[in-house]
Structures are given as C-alpha cells and as structure tokens.
Design goal:
The chain is an alpha/beta fold and 334 residues long. Helix content is 46%, strand content 15%. Residues 1-6 have low confidence and may be disordered. This is MoxR family ATPase.
Length: 334
C-alpha cells in the first residue's frame, strides 16, 4: 500500500503531469479534424494507449471505429496495420510465418501485420479460437514466436479489436478468459443528429482535413511512464477494491439482491486495470492525483466485460451495466 503521508509531494507530481500531458490537447484536436463527435471513444483509445492496455470496441458498423485508430496512428506518427478477421484466417496471417527461400536454400521469416504500433483487429469474433489466441498471446506477452525465434513487439503497442453486436451468424464469441485481457470494453452509440449532419457534409464535400503527426512515439512512451507516477491515495485504492469485491461477494456490501444475477465477478486483472485506467483518466484531465470521479468515469469500460451474468439476469433483461450501476451507487465514495 502507498504511504499516505506528507512525504508525497503532490504539487511537484502535478507540475510534472501537467507538463507531460500537454500533448493531449494537441492530439485530441488533430483527431477531431476527422472524427466527428465520439469523444468517449477517442478518450478511451487514449486511456488504452497510455495505460499500455488494449481496447475492445462494440458497435454497429459505420461508427468510425476503423477511422479512429487509423487517425490516432497518423497523429502519433506510429505504424498502423489492419487485420480483417474472417472464418478462414490462420494464425500465420496475423503473426507471420517462415517461408522457404530457394536462393539461399533456407527458411526466412516473413513478419505478419501484428508488427505495428497500432493494430486494428476488425470483427475479431469472426475468426476461430486459434487465430484469436495468436493475437491474444501477442497482446499479453508483447512478443511473437515464429518457428523457434521470438520477436519483441515495438512499443507502444495498442490493439483495438472491434465486435459487431448485430449479426451473430458465423461468429465465434470471445471466451471470457480472452476478453479479460482487454483493458477496456467500450460500447459506441450512434452520433447525435447535429454531429451526423456534419459527417454527411464532410463526406459529400470529400474534404477531410489532413491529419498531421503532432506527437512522436518517444513522447507517448514518456507519458506511459509518467502515468505510473500519478498519485493514488490509499482511500482511492480501497474504493477500487470495494467495487471489485462487490462483484464477487455482493452480500457483504448490502447488495444481496444482485447475488443471484452474477455468475462470476471481476478478476484481479479488473482491479489492476481499474486503478491504471483511473490514473490515465486523471492524466488526460492533466491532474497528478486520482479522485473518485476518475474511478467512476472509467468503471463501466473496465468492468462491463468482466462480470458474468446468470440466466436469471438475462431473463429479467438485466445487463452487467445495470449491475455496475447498482454497485457504484451503493459503495461509499471516499
């Protein structure tokens, strides 16, 4: 546990974070040239990037999911690759493979699209488990093994996977253990009417502004280590633990009514990611310390895919979102 005493110089941490986070406004402004609205999605992408996590986006087609990560990679001056997941995709199509080279009479390694700073795994639930696990190993270990050679992936490394919630035919739902590896699961909704009006205009004109690289990878790596320095008080740590433990043993938190609705609660990865995402959110707000509002801002994205709901909950049309709302409203804010 962190020492909660005067030895922590909040003022100097705040100063440092303010300096290191100066690029956030630049980056957001650059992305907003192309992405209309979708502030929540852009913010979550930055949290994933700063927290060295990955993000799972769920939304109907045409909501600029692909465009968002492509724009981010242009604004950050990083490499981008897109993998369209299909039922006939093979692990080698993602990570790479060994090819026989007749000239030298030996095998040479051809690296796959996973070797990029920003990887878009489009419609991840369309590919079989074998391919999903090849991608998830790279996400977790930040390395790839081809033949008997292991390659480290470049930093920063962000995977944004998308899922289409509408069509379920011919899809392979991600197993719980694999979904848990995503730091955030963000659900995207349709834009507002005024925003969609702007989208139509921009598309009809064909006049999209050019996205310029405003941040280099070095700055992102510095920001990733600065995020770790954001101060989190012991009371906030306790608040995070209370929220996560309420998903496992709701009866201890005066939430007996939701016990039959939860089949399993959030894992320790949930606690770690909730703490990290809260720090990232504070960083985006250019603050050197975490407040309870930061935790509440990210709690849905961190936990919605980590709480299993029972058949009883499904029968009553209760989602993991509803359960998180009940928990957050019940647990005392420090």
């Amino acid at each position: 546990m962190m020492e909660n005493d005067s030895s922590v110089d909040i003022a100097s941490i705040n100063e440092k974070i303010e300096k290191e986070s100066a690029f956030v406004d630049l980056l957001t402004r650059e992305m907003n040239k192309v992405i209309v609205g979708q502030k929540h999605m852009v913010e979550r992408l930055l949290i994933g990037l700063l927290g060295q996590g990955h993000i799972l986006l769920e939304g109907v087609p045409g909501l600029a999911k692909t465009l968002a990560i492509n724009t981010l990679s242009q604004a950050v001056h990083g490499s981008f690759s897109r993998i369209q997941f299909t039922p006939d995709l093979l692990p080698a199509d993602v990570v790479g493979t060994m090819i026989y080279n007749m000239k030298v009479n030996d095998f040479s390694i051809k690296k796959g699209p996973i070797f990029a700073n920003f990887v878009l795994a489009d419609e991840i639930n369309r590919a079989p488990a074998k391919v999903q696990s090849a991608l998830l190993e790279a996400m977790q270990e930040k390395q790839v093994t081809i033949g008997d050679e292991t390659f480290r992936l470049d930093k920063p490394f962000l995977v944004m996977a998308t899922q289409n919630p509408v069509e379920q035919e011919g899809t392979y739902p991600l197993p719980e253990a694999q979904v848990d590896r995503f730091m955030l699961k963000t659900v995207i909704n349709y834009p507002q009417m005024a925003e969609e009006h702007l989208i139509i205009r921009a598309n009809l004109k064909g006049a999209f502004e050019k996205v310029n690289p405003v941040v280099d990878l070095e700055q992102i790596l510095r920001a990733q280590s600065a995020v770790r320095e954001v101060y989190m008080d012991e009371k906030i740590e306790k608040y995070i633990l209370d929220i996560v433990f309420a998903t496992r043993t709701p009866e201890k938190y005066n939430l007996e009514d939701i016990k039959p609705l939860i089949s399993f609660g959030a894992s320790p990865r949930g606690s770690i990611n909730l703490a990290t995402a809260s720090k990232c959110y504070a960083f985006l707000k250019r603050r050197g310390y975490v407040i309870p509002e930061d935790v509440r801002a990210v709690v849905h994205d961190v936990l919605r895919h980590r709480i299993g709901i029972t058949y009883e909950a499904e029968a009553e049309n209760i989602t993991s979102e509803d359960l998180i709302n009940k928990i957050v409203n019940e647990i005392e804010v420090p």
